[in-house]
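Weekly structure sync, notes
Attendees: PL (lead), two postdocs, one rotation student
Agenda item 3: pending single-chain targets
PL asked that the sequence for the first pending target be pasted directly into the notes so everyone works from the same version. It is reproduced below exactly as submitted, 146 residues in total.
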Amino acid sequence: MTSSHIMITVLGANLASMPMAIVVSRLLIRGQLRTFFDTFPPRPELPDVVRREFRSFSIGIINLGFSVHSAADHEHLHMNPAQFVRLCRMRPMSIPWSELKLTVGKNSGGERRATIHADKHSWTLRGPRWCLELIEPTCAKSHKET
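Predicted structure, written out during the meeting:
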């Protein structure tokens, strides 16, 4: 087999696996986050919003690396998924700051962790420091990323 045959075979296998990856992602996101989406529907952004595009967040076991457009105003953290993640059934959401609590001692680098409590459910949210430090304004020195 020549190297071009190997390249074509590998490319074909990767292309063939893409639909399966999308189906598995859709099932995983829907199964893990259905209650989360229902609990935190999207709300309109307020005029004092700070916005960043293509940020990384994790909700529980779902890692949304560089695929969330985030915005923060004084009432909510707004998370709007990028187009590719919408194919996997990720929906826009607005989480009230009152539902988020920073997790002490489990933060690293430019990332912070918070726990989200709603009714009988709780989730761990990992996201950019600039964003999650707005939960407790005394922690945040500015809106700049570190």
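Discussion points:
- Strands lie at 50-59, 62-72, 76-81, 93-96, 100-102, 111-118, 121-128.
- DSSP finds three helices and seven strands in the chain.
Action: rotation student to compare against the earlier draft before next sync.
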